[in-house]
Design brief:
alpha+beta, Immunoglobulin-like, four-stranded mixed β-sheet
Length: 242
C-alpha cells in the first residue's frame, strides 16, 4: 500500500513539474522538418508591426521539434527557419495558431510549400481562402505580362482594355474576401482577413463583417483590432468632410 501511495505521489509530482515548466502556456506545437539536421527554429508573433520571437528551438541532429506558447486568442504566428549558412526566401511559415494541440510537418528543401499544419480550424479556413486568392494572383500575373507586351508594342487600345480588366479583377478579389470573411464571421480568421487583405474597402463592408462577428470573435485580438480600425477610419473620414 505504501509503495502504491509513493508511486501515485511521484506521478502527481511529475505532472505538476511538467505544468510548471510550461508556465501558463496554452498552445502545444509539435512538428518535424524533414531533412533538417542543423539550425534554429523561431516561433514568432507580430508585436507593434515587428516580428518578435516567443520561442527558440535548436535543431541538432534531430528534425522533430516541440514548443509551448501562450496566446490570448487565436492569432497568426510564424515559424521561421534559420539554416545557418544557407540563405533562402523559403524560410518563413505563417500559421493561424489556436490554444490546444497543433502539428506542423514540412521539409528542409521546401519549408513553406511542403508545410502541413493541423489542429486549428482557423488555419483550415485560411488555407481555403489562400487557394482562391492564388487564382486571383495568377490572373493578375497574366494581366501584367499582357501589359508589358502591349507597352512594348505601344498598343494603346489594348493597354486601356488591360487596365479595365485589372480594375475589375481587384474589385472581384475584394468582394470575394469580404464575402469569405462575412460567411466565416464566427471564426477569428474573419477580422484578420478584413485587416490584412481589404483594409481600404468601403466601410460598409467592414461594418457588416464587424456586426456579424460572434461575441467571442469580437473579444479576440483581431476582433478588437478591427473594431478600433473601423472607429479610427470613421473618425478620420468625418474629419475630412468637415
Amino acid at each position: 500500500m505504501k509503495k502504491i501511495i509513493l508511486a501515485l505521489f511521484a506521478i502527481t509530482l511529475f505532472v505538476s513539474c511538467q505544468k510548471e515548466d510550461h508556465g501558463d502556456a496554452n498552445l502545444h506545437i509539435t512538428g518535424n522538418v524533414k531533412g533538417l539536421r542543423q539550425g534554429k527554429l523561431y516561433i514568432q508573433k507580430v508585436v507593434d508591426t515587428a516580428l518578435v520571437a516567443v520561442d527558440t528551438i535548436v535543431i541538432n541532429g534531430k528534425s522533430e521539434f516541440e514548443s509551448w506558447v501562450k496566446i490570448d486568442s487565436p492569432e497568426m504566428l510564424y515559424l521561421f527557419l534559420d539554416r545557418g549558412q544557407t540563405n533562402s526566401v523559403d524560410n518563413n511559415l505563417p500559421f493561424f495558431a489556436e490554444p490546444g494541440e497543433m502539428k506542423i510537418e514540412t521539409s528542409n528543401d521546401e519549408f513553406f510549400y511542403k508545410a502541413k499544419v493541423t489542429g486549428s480550424k482557423n488555419q483550415k479556413l485560411y488555407e481555403d481562402f489562400l487557394k482562391i486568392k492564388s487564382k486571383f494572383s495568377n490572373q493578375n500575373l497574366d494581366l501584367v505580362a499582357k501589359n508589358m507586351e502591349a507597352t512594348k508594342n505601344s498598343n494603346v487600345q489594348q493597354l486601356d482594355s488591360i487596365a479595365k480588366a485589372s480594375e475589375h479583377l481587384i474589385k472581384r478579389r475584394y468582394l470575394y474576401t469580404a464575402n469569405f470573411a462575412l460567411n466565416n464571421a464566427k471564426s477569428e480568421v474573419a477580422p484578420y482577413l478584413a485587416l490584412s487583405e481589404i483594409p481600404d474597402i468601403n466601410l460598409r463592408y467592414l461594418d457588416t463583417i464587424q456586426k456579424s462577428m460572434s461575441p467571442k470573435v469580437a473579444k479576440s485580438l483581431y476582433g478588437k483590432m478591427l473594431s478600433k480600425y473601423i472607429a479610427d477610419r470613421k473618425k478620420a473620414e468625418t474629419a475630412e468632410v468637415k
